[in-house]
Amino acid sequence: MGGNNMRRFFVGLLLASSILSFNTEPGAEVVRAAYPSANVQFLPAFVTLEKGFYKSEGLDAELISVRSAPIAVQALLGGQIQYILTIGPQMPAIWEGMDIVLLAQQVGRPTFSLIVTPDIQKISDLRGKKIGVSFGGSTYSGIKALLEVNRIAEKEVEYVNIPGSSPKVAAMKQGIIKAALLAPPADYTAINSGFKRLVNLADVFKDTAFTGLAATGKLIRENPQQVKRMVRAIVKGVIHTRDYPEDAIHTMVKHLRMERDAATDAYGLIRAALNPVPTVQGVELMAQWQAIAMGTKPKKKAVEYMDLRFVNEVMAELGQK
Predict the structure, then answer these.
(1) Among 3, 102, 288, 304, which is most buried by a count of CB atoms within 10 Å?
(2) Do residues 44 and 106 make contact, with C-beta atoms less than 8 angstroms apart?
(3) Are 282 and 105 in contact (CB under 8 A)?
(4) Is 264 exposed, middle or buried (0-12, 13-18, 19+ CB in 10 A)?
(5) What is the CATH number of the domain that holds 7?
(6) What are φ and ψ of residue 318, in 5° steps?
(7) Which of 278, 147, 260 is nearest to 211 (CA)?
(8) 46, 52 in Cβ contact below 8 A?
(9) 77 lies in which domain range?
(10) Are residues 309 and 200 in the same domain?
(11) What's the Cα-to-Cα distance from 311 to each of 173, 275, 282, 306, rounded to whole Å?
């Protein structure tokens, strides 16, 4: 990691830690977990914080926003953070031999919706149209996967590189594009601006390991007790998020800074995807998404970087199926 990036990381670390960790319990073990940005994909991790599940496991957890996946991976490998809450973004590093292991899942379906202009009635109407994506990102791989399912060839549409959700909505307003994949709350905002949700990707890709919990193999070997406590905290958070909608919506308003109506809409979209145990198939599908975005192919099988011992033990101990 370059010097400037390292400095920016630690500035972000200090700022995030002051906001996204609660009062430290005496004797609690400090752990740091990175996520790209505060959105609904990581809701269970924030519910875990809000409900005190980290503390109940003797952990003083700091949730840190690190937008760059390569920086987050380097911080993980270097020990500046202990956990990462994504699944797909670290896969390229894993394929190149980096020692990163998936431990659990938070959201097991994509959280994007295909938002379109009012004249688009069905997916086939997108033939010959311009679609806003972020090249190399999940919106690019997600829309390619969706079009493939609907037998629309890549050459039949035109992709426009528009990073960020707000710029995509602005481009639709200006008539530059006809569609874009948007995550909450941007999808809800777009709908209120006169556009419509044509497809919720969670209804199409029902087993896709979208977000979770990962650590280095080194940490797992050297401190398995801490790892299991962290897994247990996340599992409790996922289950609570699923079973207590009002707590989940409150957390979205408080930590994700969403309006209540947008939070309620988003929760309805992801509730069925809240499952702490990933499947091999779901991780393989996320690997395919990541490979599509990079124009490559997965270099490892999912089972080679999954370790579900802890999550399975925790689920049994909690009496969950």
Answers:
(1) 102
(2) yes
(3) yes
(4) middle
(5) 3.40.190.10
(6) -90, 0
(7) 278
(8) no
(9) 3-109+207-317
(10) no
(11) 45, 11, 16, 11
Give the orientation angle of helix 245-255 with respect to helix 260-270, to 10 degrees: 130
Predicted TM-score (pTM) of this structure:
0.86
Within 8 A by CB and 6+ apart from 32, the residues are: 13, 17, 61, 62, 64, 80, 81, 82, 83
Closest of 224, 213, 207 to residue 273, by C-alpha = 207
Of the candidates 183, 136, 134, the residue with the CA atom closest to the CA atom of residue 161: 134
> How distant is the alpha carbon of residue 148 from its chain centre?
22
Together in a domain, 100 and 239: yes
The pLDDT profile of the chain, 321 residues, written as one tens digit per residue, is 454 554 455 445 444 443 455 555 667 899 999 998 888 999 999 999 999 999 999 999 999 998 888 899 999 999 999 999 999 989 999 999 999 999 999 999 999 999 999 999 999 999 999 999 988 777 888 898 899 889 999 899 999 999 888 899 999 999 999 999 998 989 999 999 999 999 999 999 989 999 999 999 999 999 999 999 999 999 999 999 999 999 999 999 999 999 999 999 999 999 999 999 999 999 999 998 888 877 789 999 999 999 999 999 999 999 997
C-beta neighbour count of 81 within 10 angstroms: 22
Q: Which of 204, 238, 269 is the last residue of a domain?
A: 204
**Number of independent structural domains in the chain:** 2
Q: In sequence order, which residues have a C-beta less than 8 Å from that of residue 122 and are 6 or more positions away?
A: 198
Q: Are residues 87 and 216 in the same domain?
A: yes
